[in-house]
Amino acid sequence: MIAYRDATLADAAALATLGADSFTQTFGHLYAPADLALFLDNHTVAAWSAELGDPDFAVRIAEQGDAMIGYAKLGPPHLPFTPTSAAAELRQLYVLAPWHGAGVAAALIEWVIAAARARGADELFLSVFTDNHRARRFTSVTDSIRSGPVPSWSAPMPTRIS
Known about the structure:
Layout: E1 2-6, H1 12-27, H2 33-40, H3 45-52, E2 58-64, E3 67-75, E4 87-95, H4 104-118, E5 123-126, H5 133-141, E6 159-160
Parallel strand pairs: 4-5
Antiparallel strand pairs: 1-2, 2-3, 3-4, 5-6
Helix pairs in contact: 1-3
């Protein structure tokens, strides 16, 4: 059975590993080793601890048994755009491959939208890497997310959630 819970500071090391592993599984083949290592510097215990300790961030974890299998991270907007009203950003949503299609991403998206609303946001943004075909399909069939134009590698995708 898959269970969901809010992350705590005690989860920083496991989230660093899960983030790095899931990113590498999905995109590792697209990067030169040095470029991949540079990106993975975002998935350190120190970086996760800082965000988990920051009230502007919220993280929801999906677990099966004692294993973390996915997570979603909500935070303040940081993409290159100007929100037109109160906004939040889905910073990351990762699910390990064996659980793709099991409803984990859908459950995490429901949490993201509810958490953004609870924080007073009426717009939700995300950025999807052009080569992340699974995420692009998911967001195209998720009624709660509509996409905008996609220049270069990614674009903010606004969603009115009020």
